[in-house]
Design a protein that fits this description.
globular; six-stranded mixed β-sheet; binds adenosine-5'-diphosphate; about 40% helix; about 475 residues
Length: about 475
């Protein structure tokens, strides 16, 4: 398929390694449009020696990059940020083509996450140490922060652009080169970001993108002693594998893994606001985000009215391909994703859930699915245990706050949680009791570059964004000065 771009050079099927754009020597990886299955491009399946070349280049670049005055690193990040904003429309076309989300949503992802480059360009200037009161007259205690070293990022397909700037921003700001391995389904957004990074003047070896067989690249990242740190966003299963595989070198890891967000509507909630919040928290990116509301708990007195209104709004969502006017829901990423949704749906219906809207593949065919709302759902159904990652909204009634909290926390995941209430005391009580890293109170939208994003429990390790995010790419060094 031919993509309509203002600047055609943003579309590339080559990887950026050590300042060179390299093509595949073998078959490569086909990138298709999930809306119609058409072939968009074929990107390299890089052999192990090319991955090692990238790691060697990053290792060679690291000392110079770390030694640059922070203003210089910040200026390059600002330039990259500006270029992303200027080219947001083209980047959105590339993103939508490989991922399926509506163009407006793709543009939103790009702009909201480019902000991490801007934010960390500023934070680079605030990597402060401490001078601590010493234990003796002739001593001084200094604490400084230094870049951790060469970083590797492994990123998912649901935010092909945003998950890269979130990691590259703090890494580069802290003084670390980073090598990105994007998801095989969506490498073109990563490669387009590499074009702009190079255009911004980021030196060879400091930002690189490699594509290829995930497990082979992952293994090289885990076992190569020149890689100091791996930042991963994806499934808990692969996260667990990375912990094990990288154990030999005691690598630093940041992991953003699966979620299973509870969304609680208390009896004192503003119902209109709660429905609107649930719509965005559930159906954004067709339900394919790790902070999507997976379990919607509604006080029994409101459950019927809430479910009916949610179903009404879900039925109105416009399903279609990315470029269509006013489209709000794209296709699911692949057939496997549709099958998971169908399994969760069938299990719930068999156990007594009632279908209010949707419930089947969309008339458009392929991997399009009707936005679906269920009521009379219970905690025993599979969809209340596992992350559905699809446009399936289950409404589960509860009788009191204690029961809602017990059900909300009864899960191994702990990324995001949401609740709606107008009671101030309850707001603090529930926010503190929820076992998750991110809490949305009276809001279905939570992520921004100024706030720390990350999970409790099996949802991961570490935080992205905020003043805390840069710490993931820094080591603390204590310098003891004696004999003064
Ligand atoms: P999802 O189910 O969302 O595709 P994955 O964890 O499988 O989640 O994918 C997230 C990222 O991890 C992708 O870039 C994918 O290619 C990569 N990945 C998958 N398997 C491995 C592996 N064994 N080692 C390293 N990376 C992997």
């Amino acid at each position: 398929t031919e993509l309509k771009l203002t600047d055609g050079t943003l579309f590339t099927d080559r990887c950026l390694v050590d300042g060179s754009w390299i093509t595949a020597t073998d078959d490569g990886i086909a990138v298709t449009n999930p809306a119609d299955g058409s072939l968009i491009a074929t990107v390299p399946s890089l052999p192990a020696d090319a991955i090692r070349r990238a790691i060697d280049a990053a290792h060679l670049a690291k000392d110079d990059w770390a030694a640059r005055p922070v203003k210089e690193r910040a200026a390059l990040l600002h330039r990259w940020y500006q270029l992303i904003l200027e080219n947001a429309d083209d980047l959105a076309v590339i993103l939508s083509a490989e991922q399926g989300k509506p163009l407006a949503e793709a543009r939103g992802e790009i702009i909201a996450n480019a902000a991490y480059l801007e934010w960390f360009a500023e934070e680079a200037k605030r990597i402060y140490g401490d001078i601590v009161p010493p234990p003796a007259r002739d001593r001084r205690v200094l604490v400084i922060k230094q870049p951790v070293g060469v970083c590797a990022a492994i990123t998912p397909w649901n935010f092909p652009n945003g998950m890269i700037t979130r990691k590259a921003g703090p890494a580069l700001a802290a003084g670390c080169p980073i090598i990105v391995k994007p998801a095989s389904q969506t490498p073109l957004s990563a490669l387009a970001l590499a074009v702009l990074a190079e255009r911004a003047g980021i030196p060879a070896g400091v930002f690189q993108v490699v594509t290829g067989k995930a497990s082979a690249i992952g293994t090289e990242f885990c076992l190569n002693p020149k890689i100091a740190k791996i930042s991963f966003t994806g499934s808990t299963e692969v996260g667990r594998w990375l912990i094990r595989e990288s154990a030999g070198d005691i690598k630093r890891l940041s992991l953003e893994l699966g979620g299973n967000a509870p969304f609680i509507v208390f009896e004192d909630a503003d119902l209109d606001a709660a429905v609107a919040g649930a719509m965005i928290a559930k159906f954004r990116n067709s339900g394919q985000t790790c902070v999507c509301a997976n379990r919607i708990y509604v006080h029994r007195s409101l459950a019927g009215a809430f479910a009916a209104r949610l179903a009404e709004a879900a039925a109105r969502l416009k399903v279609g391909t990315a470029g269509e006017e006013g489209v709000e829901q794209g296709p699911l990423i692949d057939e496997k994703a549709v099958e998971k949704m169908e399994e969760h749906l069938a299990d719930a219906l068999a156990k007594g859930a009632r279908l209010l809207t949707g419930g089947k593949r969309h008339a458009r065919g392929g991997t399009f699915f009707e936005p679906t709302v269920l009521e009379n759902v219970s905690q025993q159904m599979v969809l209340a245990r596992e992350e559905t990652f699809a446009p399936l909204a289950p409404v589960i009634p509860f009788d009191d706050e204690a029961e809602a909290l017990a059900m909300a926390n009864d899960n191994v995941f702990g990324l995001a949680g949401y609740f709606y209430t107008r009671d101030l005391a309850r707001m603090f009580r529930v926010a503190e009791a929820l076992e998750c890293g991110i809490v949305g109170v009276n809001s279905g939208v939570i992520a921004n570059e100024m706030a720390p994003f990350g999970g409790f429990k099996q949802s991961g390790i570490g935080r992205e964004g905020s003043k805390y995010g840069i710490e993931e790419y820094l080591e603390i060094k204590y310098v003891c000065v004696a004999g003064l």
